[in-house]
Design goal:
- Helices cover about 45% and strands about 0% of the residues.
- It has helices at about 15-20, 40-45, 50-70.
Protein backbone atom coordinates (compact mmCIF):
# COMPACT_ATOMS: atom_id res chain seq x y z
CA UNK A 1 0.00 0.00 0.00
CA UNK A 2 1.20 3.51 -0.68
CA UNK A 3 1.91 5.85 2.24
CA UNK A 4 -1.16 7.46 3.84
CA UNK A 5 -0.34 10.87 2.41
CA UNK A 6 -0.17 9.57 -1.18
CA UNK A 7 -2.30 11.21 -3.83
CA UNK A 8 -4.18 8.17 -5.13
CA UNK A 9 -4.93 9.96 -8.40
CA UNK A 10 -1.20 10.06 -9.15
CA UNK A 11 -0.52 6.38 -8.46
CA UNK A 12 0.38 4.34 -11.51
CA UNK A 13 -2.09 2.09 -13.27
CA UNK A 14 -1.50 -1.66 -13.12
CA UNK A 15 -0.44 -1.64 -16.78
CA UNK A 16 2.59 0.42 -15.69
CA UNK A 17 3.53 -2.35 -13.28
CA UNK A 18 2.85 -5.29 -15.58
CA UNK A 19 4.02 -3.48 -18.72
CA UNK A 20 0.81 -4.29 -20.60
CA UNK A 21 -2.95 -4.24 -20.04
CA UNK A 22 -3.75 -7.31 -18.04
CA UNK A 23 -6.37 -8.01 -15.42
CA UNK A 24 -6.52 -11.13 -13.33
CA UNK A 25 -9.98 -10.82 -11.86
CA UNK A 26 -10.45 -14.16 -10.16
CA UNK A 27 -9.19 -13.05 -6.73
CA UNK A 28 -6.74 -15.93 -6.50
CA UNK A 29 -2.99 -15.73 -5.96
CA UNK A 30 -0.99 -16.65 -9.05
CA UNK A 31 2.53 -18.01 -9.33
CA UNK A 32 4.37 -15.77 -11.77
CA UNK A 33 7.29 -18.18 -11.90
CA UNK A 34 5.11 -21.02 -13.26
CA UNK A 35 5.60 -20.98 -17.00
CA UNK A 36 2.34 -22.83 -17.62
CA UNK A 37 0.36 -20.05 -15.90
CA UNK A 38 -0.02 -16.39 -16.73
CA UNK A 39 0.91 -16.86 -20.39
CA UNK A 40 0.50 -13.18 -21.27
CA UNK A 41 2.90 -12.27 -18.46
CA UNK A 42 5.50 -14.70 -19.79
CA UNK A 43 5.03 -13.56 -23.38
CA UNK A 44 5.85 -10.01 -22.33
CA UNK A 45 8.48 -10.48 -19.60
CA UNK A 46 10.45 -13.57 -20.62
CA UNK A 47 12.18 -11.72 -23.46
CA UNK A 48 12.99 -8.85 -21.08
CA UNK A 49 14.67 -11.01 -18.42
CA UNK A 50 11.75 -12.90 -16.90
CA UNK A 51 10.52 -12.75 -13.35
CA UNK A 52 13.72 -11.14 -12.08
CA UNK A 53 13.36 -8.26 -14.55
CA UNK A 54 9.71 -7.85 -13.55
CA UNK A 55 10.62 -7.78 -9.85
CA UNK A 56 13.30 -5.14 -10.49
CA UNK A 57 10.83 -3.10 -12.54
CA UNK A 58 8.20 -3.20 -9.76
CA UNK A 59 10.83 -2.38 -7.14
CA UNK A 60 11.89 0.67 -9.13
CA UNK A 61 8.29 1.86 -9.45
CA UNK A 62 7.67 1.41 -5.72
CA UNK A 63 10.86 3.32 -4.89
CA UNK A 64 9.71 6.07 -7.23
CA UNK A 65 6.33 6.26 -5.47
CA UNK A 66 8.00 6.53 -2.06
CA UNK A 67 10.54 9.10 -3.22
CA UNK A 68 7.80 11.41 -4.54
CA UNK A 69 5.87 11.34 -1.26
CA UNK A 70 8.73 12.34 1.04
Amino acid sequence: MPPDESDWDKLRHQRNFFGFDYVVGDGAAHDLSAENQMQKFHQYWDEKGGLTAFQNHVGNLINEIFSTTE
